[in-house]
Amino acid sequence: MTHLPALIDLLTAPAWSLLVLLAGAGVLGASLQAQGVVQRLAAWACRGRPGFADLCWRMTALVGATAWLLPSTSARAALCLPVFTGLAAHLHHPAQRRAMALLLPTTVLLSAGGSLMGAGAHLLAVDALRAQGLPAPGYLDWLVWAAPFAVCACGLATLAVLRSMVPATQRHVRIDLPQEPLAPWTPVQRRLAILTLATVLMWVLGPWTGIGPAPVAAGAAVLAAWPRWGGTPLREALRGVDVRMLLILAGSLLLAEAVMASGAAQWMADQLLAPARQFGQTGLLAVVAAVSLLLHLLLTSRSARVAVLLPLLVLPLTLALPDAQGSSARVLVMVAVMGTGFCQTFAISSKAMLLFTRHPQSGIGPGDLLRLSALLLFPLWLLLMGFGLWVWPALDPFTSPLAHP
To answer: Which of 22-31, 96-105, 319-328, 332-341 shows the highest mean pLDDT?
Structure first.
């Protein structure tokens, strides 16, 4: 009994809550996938006789929406593989198959930033802001801040793929997709769909209900993994928990807290004070945006990139900024995190891209990845700068009352 208070403190600690949140969302996502809910959405989208360009925009919207259902980019990419296999049978031009194989994983990676549960890197950013005593975004705050950027980034990627990878004569060719009627919703699928909607609603209403997102995710995971209710065996539901990502996240949280507690971040901030004043906030924003976009050339894991970027560069810079306790710090952290979603240069830069380059029908070569990366790099840097200079600072007064320190 003497250890009970310590155990309660551990389970309610912010860092532990972030891990519970990600694990619970993973179990819910795995159950949705195991019971065919996500596959129903894909089958609904892959119907009719659209032009190829219209099909690409349709798939961008569908794959982007899965960022709010599945918290792992690897799981989302694996889900897209059979969708691509089915579409490839109806795409008769090699350029169409190659473009679709590039578009799906790129959308997976760039859309992840739109949801707080889209990647463990986002939870690292939340913890980093809390460690400095700054208001940390909740689920709704993140949605307001990040979803518009994710939509714009996915739109840029779709345009780049269509314009650079597909001949003009093939962009509007009609694609004959399956017309079989969809099977009726099963009771389990209905329950899981209602559970998902209720979970998201509770996350959105968290600032008013006082219930944190971690308990909501844990409760949803218990219901989803209960065979009599969610219909998914526990072992299969637990496959949605990315243990490797949780371990990286836990280690990254400890690293960030150690850097802050040891005074290393303050020491580095003192060293960066003069350059920070010389470059100004715009110059620092440009540097952080560029580094976050290029760091995937050295580190293949997004969580690992954020784990390095935040404590070694962004946190010290936020301490060196004159507005370290205001919106500048939050904007700088957001720029760093959203920039790490760009990782299309090499097949090994991300698991999502690696899965599709290995697909026998994709036809993707190293030159295609380099070409797409070169086309996206500068527009994404401009997009980060635009949001960092104008959009996010303008949104801050409206979202900060919803955030909790």
So the answer is: 96-105
Cα separations in angstroms, 138 against 75, 130, 205, 206: 24, 11, 10, 8
* Dist CA 83 CA 107 (whole Å): 14
Helices (H) and strands (E) in the chain, counts: 20, 0
Picking from 300, 336, 299, 296, the residue whose alpha carbon sits closest to that of residue 315 is 336
Whether 114 contacts 150, CB under 8 Å: yes
pTM to 2 decimals? 0.88
Cβ 249 vs Cβ 119: under 8 Å? no
- Gap between the Cα atoms of 188 and 191, Å rounded: 5
Amino acid sitting at position 301: S
The DSSP 8-state label assigned to residue 404 in this structure reads B
Question: Distance between CA 288 and CA 274 in Å, rounded?
Answer: 16
In angstroms, the CA 228 to CA 232 distance is: 8
Q: What is the pLDDT of residues 235-258, one digit of tens each?
A: 888 888 878 777 777 777 776 667
Domains of the chain, by residue range, sit at 14-402
- Strands (DSSP E) along 262-392, which ranges? none
The predicted pLDDT at position 403 comes to: 43
Closest residue by Cα to residue 282 from 316, 326, 328: 328
Q: What token pair was written down for 277?
A: 């004043």
| 144, HSE (Cβ side, Cα atoms, 13 Å) | 19
